[in-house]
């Protein structure tokens, strides 16, 4: 069985034989430090964590994983695309994403998309897959969640003929803003967008690089729906399914490339 213990503002998550300290955007491995591996080799991801933390916590984390250091290894992460077929582009995207042990401090495993951005082919594959899915869905708004939603959102918006709306943390946008507060396990946070950036009746795609617990995406959906926007779907490059962010979204559709 998995067990979770709360210690001040963090959770200690005991999964099988490993213990992880879940705090903010990262997971601390208290017993096991994972080895590094070449970023060019496909990684076998297996997230094994549970947490009660809400809100934005849990982004860019990896609770546990195994690696195959053979440079010629093939991906086991290829996922069905929207037409139900296994797409080789998914494998290329997966192999371009790496996990960094001991960042930003010892015992932390960080989910890193910067290597994906360094690979023009894999980065283009990522944008193309989203564009192919959304180009015929009459979407007029692509709402990108700070900060990595700002990377993927604009090229998708341009390609499908939609406007890009940044969803920002408090006190980052000039001028009048509308805010949505959401709960963390201890305290609250906010997400904001400009007043007038969207109009009632518009159809929106909400995009971020990763869904973990789902709190920030839920806040973005609520903010858009408050002003009468229809959220068609949420989209992320990566999902950590055992953190159950998809369940938190309820009946709102979620599309991911790598899980």
SSE blueprint:
Layout: E1 3-7, E2 10-15, E3 18-23, E4 26-29, E5 43-45, E6 65-67, H1 88-96, E7 98-101, E8 108-112, H2 114-117, H3 120-134, E9 141-145, H4 149-160, E10 163-167, E11 177-183, E12 188-194, E13 203-211, H5 215-226, E14 230-239, H6 245-248, E15 254-258
Parallel strand pairs: 9-10, 9-13, 13-14, 14-15
Antiparallel strand pairs: 1-2, 2-3, 3-4, 4-8, 5-6, 7-8, 11-12
Helix pairs in contact: 1-3, 3-4
- Strand pairing plus helix content: what structural class? alpha/beta
Radius of gyration: 18 Å
Percent of residues in β-strands: 25-35%
Instruction: Give the strand order of the largest sheet, numbering strands 1, 2, ... along the chain.
Output: 1-2-3-4-8-7
The helix tally amounts to: 6
> What is the approximate shape?
globular
Mean pLDDT: 75
The major pleated sheet works out as: 6 strands, antiparallel
Q: What is the H/E order?
A: EEEEEEHEEHHEHEEEEHEHE
Number of strands: 15
Unreliable residue stretches: 1-58, 62-79
What portion of residues is helical? Answer: 10-25%
Rounded to the nearest angstrom, the distance between the terminal CA atoms is 23 Å
């Amino acid at each position: 069985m998995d067990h979770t213990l709360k210690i001040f503002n963090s959770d200690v998550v005991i999964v099988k034989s490993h213990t992880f300290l879940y705090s903010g955007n990262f997971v601390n491995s208290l017993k096991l430090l994972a080895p590094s591996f070449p970023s060019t080799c496909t990684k076998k991801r297996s997230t094994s964590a549970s947490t009660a933390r809400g809100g934005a916590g849990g982004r860019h984390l990896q609770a546990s994983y195994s690696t195959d250091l053979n440079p010629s290894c093939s991906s086991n992460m290829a996922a069905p695309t929207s037409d139900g077929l296994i797409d080789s582009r998914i494998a290329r995207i997966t192999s371009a994403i790496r996990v960094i042990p001991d960042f930003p401090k010892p015992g932390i495993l960080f989910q890193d998309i910067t290597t994906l951005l360094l690979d023009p082919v894999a980065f283009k594959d990522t944008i193309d897959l989203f564009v192919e899915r959304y180009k015929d869905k009459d979407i007029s708004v692509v709402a990108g969640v700070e900060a990595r939603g700002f990377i993927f959102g604009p090229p998708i918006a341009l390609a499908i003929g939609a406007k890009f709306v940044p969803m920002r943390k408090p006190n980052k946008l000039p001028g009048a803003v509308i805010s949505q507060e959401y709960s963390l396990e201890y305290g609250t946070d906010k997400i904001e967008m400009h007043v007038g950036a969207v109009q009632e009746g518009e159809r929106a795609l909400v995009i971020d690089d990763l869904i973990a617990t789902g709190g920030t995406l839920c806040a973005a959906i609520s903010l858009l729906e408050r002003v009468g926007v229809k959220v068609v779907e949420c989209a992320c490059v990566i999902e950590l399914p055992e953190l159950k962010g998809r369940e938190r979204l309820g009946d709102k559709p979620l599309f991911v490339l790598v899980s």
